[in-house]
Amino acid sequence: MDEIEKTDNSWKSKALGVGALIGAFTGIGIAYFLIQNAEKEGEQFSFSSGQGVKLGLLLLGTMRQVMQMDDGGSKGKKR
Length: 79
Hints:
The chain is mainly α.
């Protein structure tokens, strides 16, 4: 019984690990490109609160789209 539970939880751990890596690399990549763009323009990077709100809403919308990706094929299934 313990082996079945470990197998059931292993995919969850893998999914969380992959998601964390994708998020970390995406964040580092975006920061790198923002810094490069600011240096190219000869300025220091600055981030206003309005830009932060826009970014937060954009990320929430993206997360919503990702969560809805599974909805199309599971109409006949119980959850």
